[in-house]
Amino acid sequence: MDNPEEEPVDENTTEDAGPAKDRRARVIDEDTDIVTFSDEQMITLSEYFKDTNAETAFMLGKYCGLRINECYGLKWCNVDFDNGIIKIDRQMQYQNGVIKLVSLKTRNARRDIIMSTPLKEYLLSVKRRRDEIMVELAEQREQNQTMLSDMGKEKISSLELVNSLDEGKIQTDNSMKYHTQKIKIQHGIIFKYHYLRHPYVKSTTKKIWRFFSTSKSQLRTAIPNWLYQLP
Description:
- The protein is α+β, with helices and mostly antiparallel strands.
- 40% of the residues lie in helices and 12% in strands.
- It contains 9 helices and 7 strands; from the N terminus they run ααααβββββααββααα.
- It has helices spanning 20-23, 39-49, 55-64, 68-72, 117-136, 138-144, 174-187, 197-211, 216-222, and strands at residues 79-80, 85-88, 91-95, 98-102, 111-114, 147-150, 155-157.
- The strands form 2 sheets. The chain has a 4-stranded mixed sheet with strand order 3-4-6-7. Strands 1-2-5 form a 3-stranded antiparallel sheet, with no helix packed on it.
- Mean pLDDT is 81; it is low at 3-28.
């Protein structure tokens, strides 16, 4: 499996991207920095991420349009398999060099996302694997876990996060930067995680318009409010 620490990181970071040297990089406005991938590029990206340590993050971006800090802040308790819902109510941030789970920037950013069938099946497989290694790698996971503040309350283990490695190590947005560079070198694709948001929104909007052949007012009622927060 690829090790994100083996390569230099991409110079383009978000405003919450990490330590001081990273924060000096230019700030990206994810809502205006819009790039869409072709069908062929999405196939290439899907094949690239398969079986890497960033596959789960890629799947959440592809099928949910999450921001990268929302992705890495997602807890297993917010994945409701019975109702097919993922609850987005927190994000991961660096604060004074310390990794924390904090509130989203606005109240409207809180939302429930319906899991597509491919994503639900994938996450179920990840959960089954996690349940197996909880016993198999119990000592390693306990040793490698990171305790982090959760919404200013008691600390939780990184093992509760959807994006954590089998051996228990935490994953952050820095885990994606290695893949960003490798994709550019191997496939000539300029990949940034937030680019996945726009194909997701476009695809979701098309599906809704196809499904509803009613008036615009009825359509607006049917579209979740969070969709109107996106470009």
